[in-house]
């Protein structure tokens, strides 16, 4: 039997065995820290080192408990400014000590030895780095940093390395990869799991440990079916890998929830099949249980190593903005015993439940403000106040409180920042679009998908602005898809984490820059929702009929014929499909290949792409807009009021929440009724009254029927009461659209202003639109050529004022002049004339 020699690494203290003493004097790399060293004979002092270490550790523990006593004896921290008096006294003492325990845990870990790499730190407003796929970032970043030193091969000696004081895997390729992961957290220490580590985490509760740690498992086996499918996806393997990764991550999440692992934070699982990594948040003490649950499940198509890497996450800190936060949760499930008590005695049962929930939250959630909990059991809603912005997995912490009788849904109804009047300051912010979470799903190509992708960006951003961010000013969101910027307004100055909150929102795929490009006072609103704002004129340059494409330059007569044929149906193609389009405002000039329509906003930079993406619009418009004009619109003269009565028949549950019903009804009205004036809805649930405003010009019977049917689908019984016509005295367009400033409402309709009679006149022509390509002065002169009664010596054009002036020497033919102006592509013309004195010697 060969004699073995115990060897100790002088760098990290790890011990291993060599088969013979022949290894003495050789240079090898430590299997744990990879640092090369020369093997020397063990010293006699090494035998007594372990008892000394044990004694030192016991002394350190004694010192720690002494330090804890000092901390407990110290006075409590000063309250925040503007906080209600007595709040600190109301708080649960254990919640106030949470930071102390986190600090103690860090010290204990360092003293424990072997796990000194794990540390807890603070400095971020959110503990959820996993939403950015931390596991993938770790590997990517690690590959760019300094590589682990290569392991030196011993000369003429075969080493049988046996790990004694560590639970790490044997030295080799796998260990190198784990070392890369550990080296990527830059000042955020990482360490593998070990038995020693689980003992030294005793100062943290499972919930606190789960918030503070990310467990990164190496995937050791992938299902053969998944591997085969990925190998066949030659065209877009990245997309296929992402899809499988998300699908398997969802399965893992469901399995771990069913396994009821107390500390696992639901929804934190992420997988990267390319890098063979799986990450999630849980208490490191549950690491083996998590791995077993994954590996034993048939539904999960991957298997992971038993030992994960542990990443210390940043702990949340107070926002520092002296705010409290009001959060509304929907109660998903109520314990059966309480349900029966509440049914038997609703008032007393609800009171007891509120007291019990207040007690549980005070004990388990340090940021919860005691006595602020309110219950609306009819709507199944629970409202709480916090001292800081809620992290993403607050619901999981609530649901896993022992003996708590409720279960809440993951996404809160609303998150409100409670601001004082002094903290309100309307501000406009502009962010740069950095990209999208799923770039491959956003093509933004001209075609029928362009408006769909565009709408997804808007709806994705609207969710955090209306549900996560407090103080968003309604209808102020604007996305510039050419310059790639996002603009919106708040009723306060933006906080430092505004972009982070928007980017991490579950329904938003748009990634904004970390800091705004610009902040400042609100600018003039760019839109008047539901009401006319601008008239836009665009030129048709191509017509498409089924599979045939005809270009105007090659066959303009055929394009004109198709345009005239489609003119009567053109409004229906734009209604509801072009964002901001004013119903029945579109006009067509087939001869000039022009279309004009009204919007409720200034034209967006990508308007031509939006128009060209309309499904039933068989034409293409030029990228350059021909003209944009202001329109006149008088709401009092152009809008009617419609009144209804209603009864809410919703069953018990969140769908009878009044704010929920108002929001859903507003969305239905905007989507279904093109003449509805947004934000005009008034619903009084106590009186059962329902009032809205509509632009005139539509089919009123159809509008009434639409409202009754759609509210019936929401279990709201509606009854029509009356319609009050417009009460203003101004002039209104019969279709309820705007009128172009200083001209008729039509695009190509001329009108006469004040016309004097006689031969000698001064004529002023004001034109609203010139759609030609030639010089304006030359086109205007061409329109007057051939009229003998025009004195061409007095002809002038003022392009800034859009005016043409000349004098006459004979009777003026107004209809003929109007026709010639149209022929030269002058539209929306107003002709005025005033009498001039007759020259001397002229015939009377």
Automatic annotation (TrEMBL):
The keyword Membrane applies. Residues 60-72 have a biased composition (Acidic residues). Keywords: Membrane, Transmembrane, Transmembrane helix. The chain crosses the membrane at residues 101-120. Residues 40-96, 121-154, 512-531 are annotated as: Disordered. Residues 40-59 have a biased composition (Low complexity). It comes from the Bacteria. Residues 143-154 have a biased composition (Basic and acidic residues). This is Uncharacterized protein.
């Amino acid at each position: 039997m060969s004699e073995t020699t115990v060897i100790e690494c002088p760098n990290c203290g790890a011990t291993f065995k060599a088969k013979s003493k022949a290894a003495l004097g050789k240079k090898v790399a430590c299997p744990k820290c990879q640092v090369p060293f020369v093997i020397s004979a063990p010293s006699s002092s090494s035998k007594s080192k372990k008892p000394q270490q044990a004694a030192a550790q016991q002394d350190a523990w004694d010192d720690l408990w002494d330090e804890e006593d000092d901390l407990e004896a110290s006075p409590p921290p000063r309250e925040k400014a503007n906080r209600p008096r007595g709040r600190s006294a109301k708080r649960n003492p254990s919640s106030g000590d949470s930071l102390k325990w986190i600090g103690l845990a860090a010290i204990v870990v360092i003293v424990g030895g072997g796990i000194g790499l794990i540390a807890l730190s603070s400095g971020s407003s959110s503990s959820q780095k996993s939403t950015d796929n931390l596991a993938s970032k770790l590997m990517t970043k690690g590959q760019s940093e300094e590589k682990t030193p290569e392991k030196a091969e011993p000369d003429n000696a075969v080493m049988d390395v046996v790990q004694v004081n560590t639970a790490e895997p044997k030295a080799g390729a796998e260990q190198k990869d784990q070392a890369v992961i550990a080296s990527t957290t830059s000042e955020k220490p990482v360490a593998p799991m070990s038995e020693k580590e689980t003992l030294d985490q005793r100062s943290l509760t499972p919930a606190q440990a789960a918030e503070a740690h990310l467990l990164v498992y190496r995937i050791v086996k992938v299902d053969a079916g998944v591997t085969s499918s990925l190998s066949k996806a030659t065209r877009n393997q990245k997309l296929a890998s992402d899809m499988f990764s998300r699908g398997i991550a969802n399965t893992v999440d469901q399995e771990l929830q069913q396994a009821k692992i107390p500390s696992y934070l639901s929804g934190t699982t992420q997988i990267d099949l390319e890098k063979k990594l799986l990450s999630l948040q849980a208490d490191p003490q549950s690491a083996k249980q998590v791995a077993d649950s994954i590996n034993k499940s048939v539904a999960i198509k991957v298997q992971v190593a038993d030992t994960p890497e542990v990443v210390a996450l940043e702990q949340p800190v107070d926002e520092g903005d002296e705010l409290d936060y009001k959060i509304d949760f929907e109660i998903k499930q109520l314990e059966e015993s309480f349900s029966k008590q509440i049914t038997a005695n609703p008032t007393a049962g609800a009171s007891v439940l509120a007291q019990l929930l207040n007690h549980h939250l005070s004990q388990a959630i340090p940021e919860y403000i005691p006595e602020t909990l309110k219950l609306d059991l009819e709507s199944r809603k629970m409202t709480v106040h916090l001292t800081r912005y809620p992290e993403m997995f607050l619901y999981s912490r609530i649901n896993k409180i022992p003996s708590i009788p409720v279960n809440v849904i993951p996404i809160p109804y609303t998150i409100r920042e409670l601001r004082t009047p002094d903290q309100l300051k309307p501000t406009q912010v502009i962010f740069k679009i950095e990209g999208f979470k799923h770039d491959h799903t956003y093509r933004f190509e001209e075609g029928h998908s362009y408006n769909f992708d565009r709408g997804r960006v808007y709806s994705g951003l609207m969710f955090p602005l209306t549900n996560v961010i407090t103080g968003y000013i309604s209808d102020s969101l604007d996305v510039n898809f050419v310059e790639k910027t996002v603009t919106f307004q708040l009723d306060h100055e933006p906080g430092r984490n505004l972009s982070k909150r928007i980017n991490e929102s579950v329904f938003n795929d748009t990634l904004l820059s970390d800091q705004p490009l610009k902040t400042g006072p609100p600018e003039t609103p760019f839109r008047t929702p539901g009401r006319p704002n601008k008239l836009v004129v665009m030129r048709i340059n191509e017509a498409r009929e089924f599979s045939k494409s005809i270009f105007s330059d090659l066959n303009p007569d055929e394009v004109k014929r198709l345009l005239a044929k489609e003119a009567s149906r053109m409004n229906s193609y734009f209604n509801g499909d072009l964002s901001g389009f004013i119903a029945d405002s579109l006009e067509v000039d087939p001869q000039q290949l022009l279309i004009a329509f009204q919007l409720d906003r200034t034209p967006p930079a990508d308007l031509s792409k939006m128009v060209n993406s309309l499904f039933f619009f068989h034409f293409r418009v030029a990228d350059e807009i021909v003209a944009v004009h202001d329109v006149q619109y008088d709401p009092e003269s152009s809008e009617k009021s419609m009144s209804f009565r209603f009864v809410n028949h919703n069953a018990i549950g969140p769908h009878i929440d009044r704010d929920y019903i108002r929001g859903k009804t507003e969305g239905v009205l905007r989507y279904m009724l093109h003449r509805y004036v947004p934000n005009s809805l008034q619903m009084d649930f106590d009186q059962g009254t329902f009032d809205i405003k509509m632009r005139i010009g539509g089919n009123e019977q159809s509008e009434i029927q639409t409202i009754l049917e759609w509210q019936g689908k929401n279990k709201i019984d509606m009854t029509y009461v009356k319609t009050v016509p417009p009460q203003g005295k101004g002039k209104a367009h019969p279709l309820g659209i705007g009128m172009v400033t200083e001209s008729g409402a039509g695009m190509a309709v001329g009108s006469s202003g004040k016309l004097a009679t006689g031969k000698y006149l001064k004529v002023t022509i004001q034109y609203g639109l010139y759609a030609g390509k030639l010089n304006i002065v030359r086109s205007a002169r061409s329109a007057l050529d051939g009229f003998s009664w025009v004195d061409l010596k007095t002809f002038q054009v003022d392009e800034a004022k859009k005016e043409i002036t000349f004098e006459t020497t004979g009777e003026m033919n107004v209809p003929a002049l109007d026709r010639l102006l149209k022929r030269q592509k002058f539209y929306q013309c107003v002709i005025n004339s005033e009498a001039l004195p007759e020259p001397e010697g002229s015939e009377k």
